[in-house]
Amino acid sequence: MIKLVNVEKFYSGNSIKTYVLRNINLEIKEGEFVSVMGPSGSGKSTLLNIIGMLDAPSSGEYFFYDKPVHKLSEKQLTELHKNYIGFVFQSYHLIDEMTVYENLEMPLLYQKVKSDERKGRVAEILDRFTMVAKKDLFPNQLSGGQQQLVAIARAIIARPKLILADEPTGNLHSEQGKDIMNMLKKLNGEGTTIVQVTHSEVNAEYGNRIIRLSDGWIEK
Would you say 180 and 144 are in contact if contact means Cβ atoms under 8 Å apart? Predict the structure, then answer.
């Protein structure tokens, strides 16, 4: 599903290159649940953003379902991202001016899903996440845990093949965090590929493989 070949990310200034990722060679198969670990500044979020096509590598090759991502146009990348990838951020990234219902509907509007199907899928996911009573509330009326649940619901409503989660339980207390991790594990059991960045050894164990980064390198 995902293949990175000699991927590097660096920033140039005053003829000095500052490396964030070095010589990353990585394959992730469909249906895997991969945890990426490492200290702050090791390149974890950058790696996730490159896999999620929100950032481009400085050099190297990236293949997604055998498509050469490093050669695709902005428009082609947007299409791939829209149709295959769901993102869960630590800081939720919900739209403040929209209700829970409208936040959940947004990815389906992007995908041009017809009105009746949109309503059905939003109703189904509100029910699945036991949030029916909160559908008309705005993000600032929800607790942190509830906002994160909405963010995960929004990530999966478009039925992506791949979910990328950046510290998905970072702002939650332990019980809420466990609920989120169990939800991701269940989705993985249903066939969704998941790549999560985490500081937590406990959360990392939910995956079937752990990749450790150090100073931009994958530890052997």
Answer: no
> Would you say how long the chain is, in residues?
220
Q: Looking at residue 22, what is its pLDDT?
A: 97
Q: CA 80, 150, 106 angle in degrees (round to 5)?
A: 45
Count up the domains in the chain and report the number: 1
In a domain, residue 22? The reply is no
Instruction: Kindly state whether residue 6 falls inside one of the protein's structural domains.
Output: no
Q: 3-state DSSP call for residue 139?
A: helix
How far is residue 193's CA from residue 186's CA, in Å, rounded to a whole number? 11
CA distances from 62 to 11, 25, 123 (A): 19, 10, 36
Which CATH number is 195's domain given? 3.40.50.300
Amino acid making up residue 178: K
Q: Does residue 108 fall inside a structural domain? A: yes
pTM of the model: 0.89
In a domain, 15, yes or no: no
| Cα distances (angstroms) measured from residue 95 to each of 61, 101, 141, 147 | 33, 11, 13, 11
pLDDT at residue 130 greater than cutoff 90: no
